[in-house]
Amino acid sequence: MERITLKIYGKVQGVFFRHYVSQTARELGLVGWVKNDLDGTVVIAAEGAEDKLKKFIMRCRKGPPNAKVEKIESAWQKYSEEFNDFEVR
After folding, report:
1. 59 carries an active-site annotation
2. Of the four listed, 16, 41, 50, 61, which is most buried by Cβ atoms within 10 Å?
3. pLDDT in 10s for each residue of the chain, 89 residues
4. Catalytic position from the list 18, 26, 66, 89
5. Which residues of 41-55 are buried (b: 16+ CB within 10 A; e: fewer)?
6. Which domains does the chain show, CATH number per domain?
7. Which Gene3D superfamilies does this entry report, sorted A to Z (predicted)?
8. Which of 36, 61, 66, 89 is catalytic?
């Protein structure tokens, strides 16, 4: 199991991006959270199997129909087991 933190840049607020991320994470069996940041980005912390996290990143790059992802910063971290579900913050 792994943990990844993502920071998504572009047109990602006000386009149901957090809902899309939450739904995608649950479909893949991931746990963690997603939130809007004050700088206009979306920040995500997700935990699960490495292959599922890689699929998750690819789906985050695409985003929902009205989103336009310009850049994703990612950092792999140690699995923490602190989450039970995936939540929108």
Report:
1. no
2. 41
3. 999 999 999 999 999 999 999 999 999 999 999 999 999 999 999 999 999 999 999 999 999 999 999 999 999 999 999 999 999 99
4. 18
5. bbbbbbbbeeebbeb
6. 2-79 (3.30.70.100)
7. 3.30.70.100
8. 36
